[in-house]
Amino acid sequence: MSRINLNQYQTLVFDCDGVLLNSNKIKTQAFYDVAKVYSHEPAQKLKDYHLQNGGISRHKKFEYLLTSILKKPIETQELSELLTNFSKEVKKGLLTCEIAKNIKELRKKTKNSTWLVVSGGDQSELREVFKKRGLEGHFDGGIFGSPDDKDTILINEIDRFNIKGKSLFLGDSLYDYQAATKAKMDFVFLSRWSDVPNLKEKFIGRDFLDLSELCNIT
Question: Which of 96, 128, 153 is the last residue of a domain?
Fold first, then answer.
């Protein structure tokens, strides 16, 4: 594992689940619980799909449930109910789950950089949770989420010059890495709370357990 000088970056982009909040297990269980109204098998398939596609928005995952697992057309009301039920299941957990250690210390060490959250989570939900948990003020570049996907958000914020200069994405999934690569950003994999720890092999030399470890060695 190599040292990283975070002060070389003008912009730091953070995923939320598994990076800033220990919330991956909460969301994984919520996908199953919401879909189990269709019986165990579809719910388990959705849960498996979620684990295989970390970082993709809940909208796309529930659309996959309806079209690919249940083999039915998407009805706006049904999709809306699934998303609403999922949000209710998740919100309580996001307000109580563990927060990454040393966020304040890391912010002080990178005081000249712009910080953003770019997540697959619902944008309004994220902003509410971050405000209530006292995290909002760290992210001067903004807090972004679905319905836009990460690729779209990164493109938009680069075009707005909100993401500028040498930039680093801190994530915990293959999709995070792919999105960072498309946006021509450096990437660090944080493995402690990741749903896919076997990915660590892919990120030799740029993998860390969590923000606390990253903060301590920079």
Answer: 96
Q: What domain range includes position 85?
A: 25-96
pLDDT digits (tens, 9 = 90+) for 178-190: 999 999 999 999 9
Q: Are 14 and 118 in contact (CB under 8 A)?
A: yes
For the segment 201-214, the average pLDDT, to the nearest whole number, is 79
Model pTM?
0.87
Residue with the two structure tokens 């659309």: 63
Number of domains in the chain: 2
For residues 138 and 166, state if they share a domain.
Answer: yes
**Does a structural domain hold residue 142?**
yes
Both tokens assigned to 73: 């057309």
Q: Is the pLDDT of residue 1 over 60?
A: no
* Residues with Cβ within 8 Å of residue 92, at least 6 apart in sequence: none
Beta bridge partners of 117: 14, 143
Q: Are residues 106 and 89 in the same domain?
A: no
